[in-house]
Amino acid sequence: xxxxxxxxxxxxxYAAFYDWENARTLGRRDLPFWRRTLAPVRGRTLELGCGxxxxxxxxxxxxxxxxxxxxxxxxxxxxxxRSRRLARPARPLLLRGDIRHLPFADRxxxxxxxxxxxxxxxxxxxxxxxxxxxxxxxxxRGGLLGIDLVPxxxxxxxxxxxISLRGRxxxxxxxxxxxxxxQDRRRRLTIFDEVFVETIGGRSSRHxxxxxxxxxxxxxxxxxxAQAGFVVDHLFGDYRGGPWHDDADVWLIVARRR
Length: 258
Fold this sequence. Notes:
Layout: H1 11-24, H2 31-38, E1 45-48, H3 56-61, E2 66-70, H4 73-83, E3 93-96, E4 109-114, H5 125-138, E5 139-149, E6 159-168, E7 174-184, E8 189-200, E9 203-214, H6 218-227, E10 230-236, E11 251-257
Parallel strand pairs: 1-2, 1-4, 2-3, 4-5
Antiparallel strand pairs: 5-11, 6-7, 7-8, 8-9, 10-11
């Protein structure tokens, strides 16, 4: 019997190239939004799926009390290395764990953030419900929940073996990303088969893995958030705080725990 694919599959293998690719695509375009949104929060902020610390470390450097959790040990190891560059009082707490079962006490955070499509890595309703329930449990009453969704995943054109990126790699060699995209419309899944070819000193290595995302409509996500015990305060359509609309660049949900 084939093993059921879960949203965390593939991220261990992606870790070596995650920062390299994101520096060429999203970068830190979302960082000012999170800095503004979290600035008024009293208490600690928990980042779900903190990965390599792309957001976590700059937010901690800006003076926010940050905690990060991620299931991928290779991703988390990069965040730990980055955190060591901060003065000790500013260093975030970093833990490896499953965001469906958070290892924190009830009402121990002022905010929980799920940035850059994190909730789209939850591939079924049970997992989404579990994460939202855990976020509510660890938030104080009135605590903030922030969710960032990538709206164009379901509209991604299918293709096979396309060279998506080329450039100097994280270890100084040449890197080429060869990508195949598949859509499973029935299950609302967008599947990326990634092959990173890295050439260093005339020798090439091939790193292949698959990332899978599930996208609900924004109204459906808002309904799930409300059902989990939150009041939605704002829907934004860009990182500058513009209003949400059907053709928005991003879907941002800011809610409060009841």
